[in-house]
């Protein structure tokens, strides 16, 4: 991560917000140190940087954005490229492989290999080393974090059922990981559970998926509206799989109407295609034509 | 003076991800430095921390969230705590109690951040104190020209506690001209900016100030982060509908229809507080028509 211009950026922000050197340095850092830092000293400790940012009330994300350091960290950047790729915008997900540490590279490669496939084609797409890499990520963490949520969200349709069930069970037991950045949504607990529930509706037990969705729904807050609409989308799938077709179609229509009222054509399209594909896969499985 | 909480939090994050120290470093000297850091005996540079977070892998946000909670923990942690309390049992009462504690500490130390947190949590029951706090807050916001997430949040909650609508115009340039952070990392400050403008629109409406309401709604439309926030969009659509109903230049009937659609969506996504408010307004509007 490039940190050489951190000092200049800090000075710009400090001045823009009207803080003197003395006010910004606070109790933990000397004015002399701050002055040196602003002139280009790069080897600042994280503690001191945290303290300096708090004194002028700038968050770390805002600071790094102002510093133009697009690679706050590789995972954050990869998550962003993935969401751009989904929206069929120019994106470079392959660069994340080189950026990732060696321990994470196998999982990143595995995910990159399947993420742009249709869900139907993702089934069974992970085998051998790629499956082992993804399994290792999902099984390893004591407390799932953003990386394992992201892997779970994106590999949902490619996982064997037992791993899918184990992953959801663990996710539901842990404190929820949340984020309000759009590009970090796939890294949240709710998003991961909904993706896994969707795979379960199509490939396994709709009843089980319905239980997972109900649990997530109870944990959501009003501001988690995107996740709520995702839950409703997959609940429509549950109804469809259980044969309650009119109810499923009503729920589908309500979800799509939501995006119309919210005036978001892109999400409307994405959700509409997604639901169509989900119903089709459920229909195929129900009639044994998969 | 090294603060132990940085290293302790890092150790917790590392262990939650089932990662050994050896996996994060390239040589024994670095491992020893890491070990000292985790025991709170050593500060590490931003570069080294970033490198190790990458190898876990974990984001900065995840690290900051694990930091041992203490009174001047990050502002994000504080806002997260506020949300958790608000949505728990007897939320408003507990927020007031916490606000009182912050006020008491401010009385001892006169550190302004303590008063800021009290203001965000709840209004003082004393009118005299409210007036003093308002004066100090006005001074603070005017002194810090370019706003970031902190000032927007303070302004938003300040409007419901110690400020009033007459403060909006003098602070308008702060409200609409934050740092020019258009990258994906700008979402944090932009989201708070949207929240501030929506609060202005909401309070303007309650006060019958339609031109100010329109000004705020039009300003929200220009903020890129709106595209990632369905909940903010929902609130915006509700306020737009109210504007349509009450503005002499627009169709009241169309406004009511839109308001009904928004209320239905609120019910669908369990945005109860918004639904309740909008229902009251719809009922009032229909009563007026009779």
From TrEMBL, chain A:
State the superkingdom: Bacteria
Matching entries from PROSITE patterns are given as: HTH_CROC1
Annotated Gene3D superfamilies = lambda repressor-like DNA-binding domains
Which segments constitute the HTH cro/C1-type domain? 11-63
Q: Which GO terms describe its molecular function?
A: DNA binding
Name the PANTHER family for this protein.
TRANSCRIPTIONAL REGULATOR (PTHR37038:SF12), TRANSCRIPTIONAL REGULATOR-RELATED (PTHR37038)
Q: What is this protein called?
A: HTH cro/C1-type domain-containing protein
Organism per entry: Lacticaseibacillus pantheris DSM 15945 = JCM 12539 = NBRC 106106
Lineage of origin:
Bacteria, Bacillati, Bacillota, Bacilli, Lactobacillales
């Amino acid at each position: 991560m490039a940190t050489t211009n951190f000092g200049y950026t800090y000075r710009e922000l400090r001045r823009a917000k009207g803080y003197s050197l003395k006010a910004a340095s606070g109790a933990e850092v000397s004015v002399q140190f701050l002055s040196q830092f602003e002139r280009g000293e790069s080897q600042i400790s994280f503690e001191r940087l945290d303290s300096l940012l708090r004194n002028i009330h700038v968050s770390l994300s805002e600071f790094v954005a102002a510093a133009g350091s697009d690679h706050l960290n590789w995972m954050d950047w990869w998550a962003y490229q993935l969401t751009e790729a989904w929206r069929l915008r120019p994106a470079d997900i392959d660069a994340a492989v080189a950026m990732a540490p060696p321990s994470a590279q196998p999982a990143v490669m595995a995910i990159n290999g399947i993420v742009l496939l249709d869900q139907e084609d993702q089934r069974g797409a992970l085998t051998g080393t790629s499956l082992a890499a993804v399994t290792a990520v999902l099984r390893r963490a004591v407390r799932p974090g953003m990386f394992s949520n992201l892997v779970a969200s994106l590999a949902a349709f490619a996982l064997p059922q037992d791993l899918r069930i184990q992953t959801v069970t663990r996710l539901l037991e842990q404190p929820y990981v949340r984020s309000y950045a759009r590009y970090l949504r796939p890294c949240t607990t709710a998003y991961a559970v909904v993706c896994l529930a969707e795979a379960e509706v199509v490939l396994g037990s709709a009843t089980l998926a319905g239980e997972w969705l109900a649990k997530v729904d109870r944990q959501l807050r009003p501001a988690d509206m995107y996740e709520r609409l995702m839950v409703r989308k997959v609940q429509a799938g549950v109804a469809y799989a259980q044969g309650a077709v009119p109810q499923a179609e009503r729920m589908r229509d309500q979800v799509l109407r939501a995006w119309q009222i919210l005036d978001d054509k892109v999400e409307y399209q994405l959700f509409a295609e997604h639901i169509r594909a989900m119903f089709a896969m459920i229909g195929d499985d129900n009639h044994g034509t998969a | 003076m090294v603060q132990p909480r940085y290293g302790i939090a890092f150790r917790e994050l590392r262990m939650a991800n089932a990662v050994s120290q050896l996996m994060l470093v390239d040589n024994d000297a670095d491992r020893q430095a890491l070990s000292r850091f985790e025991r709170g005996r050593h500060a590490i540079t931003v570069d080294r921390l970033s490198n190790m977070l990458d190898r876990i892998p974990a984001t900065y946000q995840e690290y900051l969230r694990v930091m041992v909670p203490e009174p001047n923990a990050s502002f994000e942690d504080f806002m997260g705590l506020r949300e958790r309390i608000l949505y728990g049992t007897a939320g408003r009462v507990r927020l007031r109690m916490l606000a009182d504690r912050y006020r008491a500490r401010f009385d001892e130390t006169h550190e302004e951040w303590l008063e800021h947190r009290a203001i965000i949590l709840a209004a003082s029951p004393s009118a005299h104190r409210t007036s003093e706090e308002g004066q100090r807050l006005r001074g603070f916001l005017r002194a810090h020209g370019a706003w970031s997430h902190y000032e927007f949040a303070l302004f938003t909650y300040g409007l419901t506690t110690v400020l009033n609508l007459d403060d909006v115009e003098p602070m308008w340039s702060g409200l609409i001209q934050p740092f020019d952070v258009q990258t994906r990392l700008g979402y944090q400050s932009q989201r708070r900016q949207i929240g501030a403008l929506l609060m202005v629109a909401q309070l303007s409406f309650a006060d019958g100030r339609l031109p100010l309401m329109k000004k705020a709604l039009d300003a929200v439309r220009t903020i890129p982060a709106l595209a990632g926030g369905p909940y903010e969009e929902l609130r915006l659509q509700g306020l737009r509908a109210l504007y349509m109903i009450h503005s002499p230049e627009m169709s009241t009937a169309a406004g009511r229809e839109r308001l009904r659609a928004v209320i239905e969506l609120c019910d669908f996504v369990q945005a109860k507080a918004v639904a309740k408010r909008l229902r009251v307004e719809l009922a009032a509007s229909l009563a007026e028509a009779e």
